[in-house]
Amino acid sequence: MDKLLLLATNGLIWGLIIALIALGLAIIFGLLDIINLAHGDFFMIGTVIAWATLQQTGNFWLAFLAAPLIGCILGALIQRTVIQPIRNVAALSIVATFGLSLILQESVRITFGPTPRRILPPIQTTIPLFGVDYEVYRLFAAAVAIALLVAFFLFLHHTKLGTWMRAVRHDRDTAIAMGIPAQRVYVITFAFGFALAAVGGVVAAPITTVDFRGGVDILPFCFMAVIIGGLGNLPGTAAAAILLAFLEGIIQSVANPTVARIASLVLMSAVLLLRPQGLFKGLTR
Amino acid sequence: MTGAALTRAALIERALMIAFAAFLVAVPWIIPALINSFWVSVIAEILIWSLFAASVNLLFGYVGLLSFGQALYFGFGMYGVAIGIDMFGLSFWPAFGLGIVAAMAMALLTGVFAVRLTWHYFAIITVVFSLIFYFLALSNKWLTGGDDGINFSLPPTFSLAGKQWSFTDSTFQYFFILATVALCFWLMHRLMESPLGKAFLAIRDNDVRASLIGLNVYLLRLVAFVLAGFLAGVAGALFAFFGRYASASYMFYHVSGEAVVWAIVGGAGTLLGPIVGTSIFIVIREVVSTHWEHHSLIVGVMAIVVVMFAPKGIVGLWRGWLERLDERGEAAAGTVERKLRTEP
Lengths: 285, 344
Prior knowledge:
The structure holds two protein chains of two kinds. By secondary structure, chain A is mainly alpha-helical. Chain A is built from eleven helices and four strands; from the N terminus they run H-H-H-H-E-E-E-H-H-H-H-E-H-H-H. Chain A has helices at residues 2-32, 39-57, 63-83, 90-112, 136-158, 160-170, 172-177, 182-204, 214-229, 234-252, 257-274, and strands spanning 117-118, 126-129, 132-135, 209-210. Chain A has a two-stranded antiparallel ribbon. Chain A has a two-stranded antiparallel ribbon with strand order 2-3. Chain A is globular, with a radius of gyration of 19 Å. Chain B has a single domain (3-333), classed as ABC transporter involved in vitamin B12 uptake, BtuC, CATH 1.10.3470. Helices cover 73% and strands 3% of the residues of chain B. Chain B contains 14 helices and four strands. The longest helix of chain B has 27 residues, at 8-34. Classes of the chains: A mainly alpha, B mainly alpha.
């Protein structure tokens, strides 16, 4: 029983972090209609920023400033140079972001090196939980992820920029006619998508390893969350990410991780075939 | 298009095709003389991967379905051969057949579900299916060998009157691969000339209209999916014979993704696009990787540059150039006339 609760908690925490990353993917997907194969690498860049910040300054917390900043700048740059010219053809975006993914991975391999590294949790204390000494940092990570998720939805619904983003997604032509600078909204959306994944990387860095291939495993998981949640349904995406990771955690308590992964993939095929609009269609709005 | 009215562009293309075919036949003699014999096997590998990219192209370029899971059928082709030889002790041809049948059966089984969806959903469900079997292959080591894979010893391809031909002879290996790949491309060419091929194009361009003129869109998509599974399966089976092994790592979605990139960079919806795209990327990989380990940086930049400046792929760029050449020629002759193009 303790083992089940422990794995379920781990799954839940991991799900909250994935929810952040998947939200970044979902806003890029929903607004720009781009299948972003480099999104896992945006997360990976975040973990590397956490590692580099710790090396340079000795202070892990500064990464929470550096990652969104660098993420926004890189995101805006990539949108302007790579995504903007091919925006009209969605199939090309797959090739372009695949190329981008290779470039990001290889650049990190050149600078950071090919060997995976670990970061010690910045909060070293543990508390007894379900019969083990549980790392307090994991609970802290969950709190940060929740805070960021809440902040993102507040931003989306209660600021001018957030309203613009929803407006352009809903009806681009009308939004432009109303004077919304759609071009700028695209750049900002892509930048925010990158930043969300990078912050997710910082939060996750002390829990996982820092590796130039770190995004490869994350990517299918994020896509699963986006699809199961329903394309363009942002709260659904976040909920699906949490649900998926939580379920995998529970299944892991009785079977090995590969079986758990297969189970969630089978679940996802069922959702795609039976409810292609997402699991939560009709619950919101 | 009758023989008498061949345009300048068609002549150039025909000449290039003949030169290309002649080059491929002459490879085992001229390549060792010009570079070294290692490159013969690189070209054989390019041929195999071109066939794999062609299976992506059949679905995306001709039917409008973007599959990100073709590696699954490639993997089944590989494992059909490897398990057939290693566990059942099959000889060459039955193992080859087993690989192809396994890939097609799998394509039928998954296709029944997958082709109910289109566009984003189709792309994602094909990835999901391929990931499911990738993880199954990883975890069932007794059958698949997992990441390490299965190594097997090659049975001879033909034995006739005490004489044997097998893949251990690298020239025989090259010609066997060339003949198989050429046969598949020829079949694909015939397919696209046939009424079935025209029906595929109709679905790609507008599936609603296609269904209104009485085409069974679901069934046609399923047929295309199984045919693409056939191409991927043949490629996988050939690759298993070529490498004498099979491994689960070839079923990962990155392998599917590379084929998508090769097909689109080469030119989706053209017969030879996949060959062009695959050749470029593998030649770069082979040339650069001996000098510089970070060759995927160049591959990434290439992929981006091509989609930015040649959105129809390299073959599309070339065709556009040829068409302009023709128009100029016709304008000079004063016979400007819009031709009906049946091939995209």
